[in-house]
Amino acid sequence: MRVNSTMTRTATVILVSLVMMAAALPVGAVEPVIPPCPLAGGIILDFPDEQLRSDRSLADAQSDLVSVVLLPGRYQVTLASYDHVAEGGDQPNEQWFLYGLDSAGATTFSTPPIADIPGNVNSMIQTMPVFFLDSRTASVGAQHAFHPDKTSTNSVYPWCVKLVRETPASQLQGDFNGDGKDDVASFYSSDGTWWVTQSTGTGFSTTLWADYYTAAGWGPQVVGDFNGDGKDDIANFHDSNGTWWVSSSTGSGFTTRRWATLSRAKGWGPQLVGDFNGDGKDDIANFHDSDGTWQVSRSTGTAFATSLWADFYTTKGWDPQLVGDFDGDGKDDIANFHDSNGTWWVSRSTGTAFATSLWADFSTTKGWDPQLIGDFNGDGKDDIANLHSGGRLWVSRSTGTSFSTTLWGTVPVGWGRQRLGDYDGDGKDDLAGFYGADGTWRVARSTGTGFTTKVWADFSTTSGWNPQMAGDFTGDGKDDIANYHSSGTWWVSRSTGASFSTTRWTNTRP
C-alpha cells in the first residue's frame, strides 16, 4: 500500500499555519533529484520534494499531510531521509519526526526524531522504536525536529516512511500482578517483548514487562504460578536447545531465567501446566509421542526438576490430552482421549508419577470437538464436556475413579468459539460459545445435572473478533470475556450473572 502526500492541508488546533510556502534554496544550491523510495512492504508513505526548514515558519518546517487510515495497534516504523548535500558541508540538527492526527486534528502519535544525518552521506534509513497507537489516525505528517531554530539554515528531506502494524505471536490470560483481576500478556516476536495489559476493573493499562535477547522461536508459551507467590508467570520453551525459560512476575514486570534443559530439544507436544504434586507451585508435563512418555518438569520455586512419570504402550494418536484434578485429591492429573476406540484414559498423579487407567469408553469414537475440562457439578472433581458435531453436549462426570457420561443438553450447530468459565459465580463451570453468523454469545449454564442455554450478548459487529478470552477481569467472582477486535480495540463482556454487559475498555499507557 503506497500513499502520496497531497497539497491540501487540514486546519487543526495544534498547527499554527497550514499554508504551504515555497522553500527557497540558498544561492547557488541545486535542487536535489530524490530517487524512488527504497522501502517496501507494509504501508508506504511518500513525501516527494518535501524540504523541511528549521529557520523559517512552521509551514516551512512541516510537510504536507498524507491522508491514510491507521487503526489502533502496535507499529514498527522505518524512516528514510534525504539530505540536500549541495547546500555545502555537514549541517547540524538535520533531524525530523513523524506525527499523526485524528479526523478532528488532535495528535495521535509522534515518533522520536531521527538521528542527525552525517555530512558524508546524502541519505539514511532508520528503524525507530515501536509505538502503540491507541486511537484511529486519519493523516500523518513530518516536521523538522529543531523548529524554530534561527541560528542556522539547516534543512532535511523526509524521503518516505514504512509502517507495519504488528500482530502478537502469543496472547495469554492470567492474573500477572496478583490483584484478583485477570490481565492479558502479549508477546511480539519481532523484538522479543512481553507487554502486559493489566485490568483496572473498568479498563486496561498496557506496559512493557520483558525484553528478550532471543526474539523468535519460542513455543509453547504457557501461564502458571510457578513459584507459588500468587502471581501468574509465563514459561517459554525454545526447541533450538530444549530449554524452559520462566518469566517470573514481580507484579510490575517479568524476571526471566532458564529453569530447565530437557533431554530432547524437539518433538514435544503437548506441554501442559498443572500442579502435579500438589505443593502449590505449577509444574509442566511434557509428552513425547516418539516413545509415549510423560516427563514432568516439577517446580522447585526457582527451577524445574524433570523426571519420567509415565510410559504409554500406545505412543501416538492421543488427542486431546487435558489437565484437571479428576479425583479431587489436590494434585492435577491428565486425561488422554484416543479416537481409534473412543476411550478416555486418566493418568492420575501420585505426587511422583502417573498411574494410568481406563475411565470411559464411548460408543461414538469420532466427531468430538471441543472436549473441555471443568467442574460442572461443583463437587470438587473435574469433569469433561464433550461436544459432538450434531450439537449435543455430553458430560463425562468424574466419580473419582471413572467417568459417567450422560447427555446434558444441545446447542445450535455453528457454535464457533467455546470458552469455559463460571459465568454466574455459583461454583459450577459453564460454557460460552460465540456464533460468528449473528455475533451472539450463548452461555450454557450448568444446573449440576444439565445445561440451560440462552443468548447472553448480541454484537452488532459479527466478525473480526480474535482472540476472545474468558477470565474474571473485574474481580467479582464471575468470569467475563475479553474480546479483541481487528480494529485495535478491546471490548469486555462483563457478566451480571445472567447476561453479558459489553463495553469498550480504554487502553491507557504511561
List the helices and strands and how they pair.
Blueprint (H helix, E strand, L loop, with lengths): L1 E3 L38 E4 L5 E2 L4 H4 L4 E5 L2 E10 L13 E6 L5 E4 L12 E5 L3 E3 L3 E8 L10 E12 L3 E5 L8 E6 L4 E7 L4 E8 L6 E7 L8 E6 L4 E7 L4 E8 L6 E7 L8 E6 L4 E7 L4 E8 L6 E7 L8 E6 L4 E7 L4 E8 L6 E7 L8 E6 L3 E7 L4 E8 L6 E5 L8 E6 L4 E7 L4 E8 L6 E7 L8 E6 L3 E7 L4 E5 L2 E2 L2
Parallel strand pairs: 1-2, 15-40
Antiparallel strand pairs: 2-11, 3-11, 4-10, 5-8, 5-9, 5-11, 6-7, 6-10, 12-13, 13-14, 14-15, 16-17, 17-18, 18-19, 20-21, 21-22, 22-23, 24-25, 25-26, 26-27, 28-29, 29-30, 30-31, 32-33, 33-34, 34-35, 36-37, 37-38, 38-39
Give the uncertain stretches in residue-range form: 1-28
Count of helix runs: 1
| Annotation, overall tally of beta strands | 40
Q: Quickly give the structural class.
A: mainly beta
* Overall form: elongated
Radius of gyration: 28 Å
Q: Main sheet? A: 7 strands, mixed
State the end-to-end CA separation. Answer: 31 Å
Give the helix level as a range of percent: under 10%
Question: What percent of residues are in strands?
Answer: over 45%
List the main descriptive attributes of the protein structure presented here.
single chain; seven-stranded mixed beta sheet; five-stranded mixed beta sheet; 1% helix; elongated; disordered N terminus
Description:
The protein is built from one helix and 40 strands. Strands 1, 2, 3, 5, 8, 9 and 11 form a seven-stranded mixed β-sheet that branches. Strands 12-13-14-15-40 form a five-stranded mixed β-sheet, with no helix packed on it. Mean pLDDT is 90; it is low at 1-28.
